[in-house]
Amino acid sequence: MGISFDRAFGLQESAVNTRIRRAEILASNLANADTPGFKARDLDFQAVLNGVAESSLSVARTHPAHLQTTVSAEPGLRYRNPTQPSIDGNTVDTQAELVEFSRNALEYQASFRFLNDSMTGLSKAIKGE
């Protein structure tokens, strides 16, 4: 019986990929800090890894003439509640976004190091070291 990467590394690969996706979302928030009406978003890391969020939402038909459809949603992606929204409707708090971006970068490094250490250990085990 072979060793699968899923069994060897568990959620570590998903954690690294989720941290990368969160960095993209936070960078988008920062890039749109001056865009009127832009709504800041964030990725709920725990919800993504737990698989709590659904990948699509069903839209209820209230009339037979309405089209049946689903709305695609990224699991764990949420709008951020602003502490003080601006007059133009933008909800990006640059300072809070920078803090979250820095925190995510540190957590990414930790996740990546953990994954790298696991791979190194597996490599040594295969080599018989």
What can you see in these coordinates?
The chain is mainly α and 129 residues long. It has one domain. The chain is built from four helices and four strands; from the N terminus they run ααβαβββα. The strands form two sheets. The protein has a two-stranded antiparallel ribbon. A two-stranded antiparallel ribbon has the order 2-3. α2 (12-31) runs antiparallel to α4 (94-127). The longest helix has 34 residues, at 94-127. The model is unreliable at 52-57 (pLDDT under 50).
Short overview:
By secondary structure, this protein is mainly alpha-helical. It is 50% helix and 9% strand. A two-stranded antiparallel sheet has the order 1-4. It has a two-stranded antiparallel ribbon with strand order 2-3.
